[in-house]
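Researcher: Final request for today, and then I'll write up notes for the group meeting. The sequence and the SMILES for flavin-adenine dinucleotide follow.
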Amino acid sequence: MNWKMESSTRFLFAFMGGFREFALRESGCGLKNAPVKQSQQVIIVGGGLAGLACAVTLRDGGWQPLVLEAGDDFGGRVRTDVMESFLLDRGFQVYLDAYPEAGKLLDLKALDLQPFDPGALVFDGKRLRRVMDPFRRPTHALESARQPIGTLMDKLRVGLLKLRATGWTPEKIASHPEMSTLQWLREFGFSEGMIDTFFRSFYGGIFLERDLRTSSRMFEFTFQMFSRGSATLPARGMQEIPRQLVDRLGSDCLRAQCRVSSLSRHGVALESGEALTSQHIVLATDATAAKGLFPAAWGRSPEWRSVTHLYFSASDSPLREKLIALNGVAGGLVNNVCVPSEIAPDYAPSGRALISVSVLGDRRSGDLVERVRQELRAWFGDQVAGWRHLRTDCIAQALPEQPPGSDSFAKPGFRQVDGVHICGDHMSHPSIEGAITSGVRTAHALMRA
Ligand SMILES: Cc1cc2nc3c(=O)[nH]c(=O)nc-3n(C[C@H](O)[C@H](O)[C@H](O)COP(=O)(O)OP(=O)(O)OC[C@H]3O[C@@H](n4cnc5c(N)ncnc54)[C@H](O)[C@@H]3O)c2cc1C
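Model: Predicted protein-flavin-adenine dinucleotide complex:
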């Protein structure tokens, strides 16, 4: 925003209701009786994990953040709704308990993380075949080796990759040659069969695309996280993660249903007509909202990957194990299925099972539920007819595209443009870890400055 626009916007704000200094409160944000210098006040636009992580880090450093969130609650893309006593996360998400930065900021014990077992069930067109991590489930090693999911050499290569990945750091990953995940897997020597039956569905569920066009660095990072720890669900739903950060901030630092309509380095205007000023502004929205609010910082429009997610309720769990089921065959709608209530029982009321089904892309259509049901009969048999559809969410802006060249692991995790700090998963890498790292680093940069 150039100065001319900035001063005219300021004039408009002042005309509409007058500037209101984001108040100097003696007891603000838990800083009881501690005078807060004006230079320590920060307005953070966006109350997803990046904005909340930034706010908590600033508050812990004695600063006074104010998070402005457009939605009716905090958490951004990590939200959980309660419906008929089911806990419905908005889209299938997991927390990887080896995430290094997120693990430092969050109280993982309080989240009561419930782990998936290390392995998967792969649908090969006829039936579900169990493939377990032989390092962590050695008793299943023989069974896994015999499954027709890749060759024996592929299974040995997974072991070799695990050994290599133990020595990787984010800096090391950033120094590796970058290519598409597909090319990386081929160069590492995996067979096309292994790529098609396992990697496309497993990483399809993580990257939300089965072409494996995502940067190989994201593949290396997630592979390492899976090798070091477990995929988990917080016992009371994914939104417990942002809720924990919200609880550390207190109501003085948070305003929901508060959409920012424009901003400059000096302040923000709210949709309500109110204007707030502050010494520091952090833009912590998703990439598309950030481009809308601050076009100066962007070139081309951000691209997104989408997912359509369905929940069903059943009297019996179709998977009596803590595993994810993957579609190992080309074609078809469904990419992955799991039963969150098998992992964390609070996801469903007693006597019911909650079934989560992910269909990649924006696949809203009138008969989607019936087509999914039809397809899953081949996986689980006639019991599917008894499943009750609970809800379908189409998440059009789920993950920002991350092609080779996005340099995610080499970036500092934020940018400063015209005095505004920009953070979010699009400044780092699209994950809970990426969003939290970006928010924390932004806070440290502000405090250092
Ligand atoms: C379906 C799905 C599956 C995923 N699976 C995983 C997974 O398994 N593991 C994993 O680690 N990650 C996963 N992710 C990614 C992870 O959830 C995101 O990378 C992360 O939550 C992004 O956080 P953020 O704070 O950067 O952005 P967001 O969560 O998008 O937060 C931005 C916030 O800004 C607010 N906002 C926008 N415009 C305005 C405005 N004008 N004024 C005020 N506020 C505004 C928005 O309402 C939002 O709350 C998944 C994401 C989705 C959607």
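Model: The pocket of flavin-adenine dinucleotide is lined by residues 45-51, 68-71, 76-78, 91, 93-94, 259-260, 284-286, 289, 293, 307, 395, 398-399, 424-425, 430-435 (CB under 6 Å). The longest strand covers residues 388-400.
Researcher: Thanks, that's everything.
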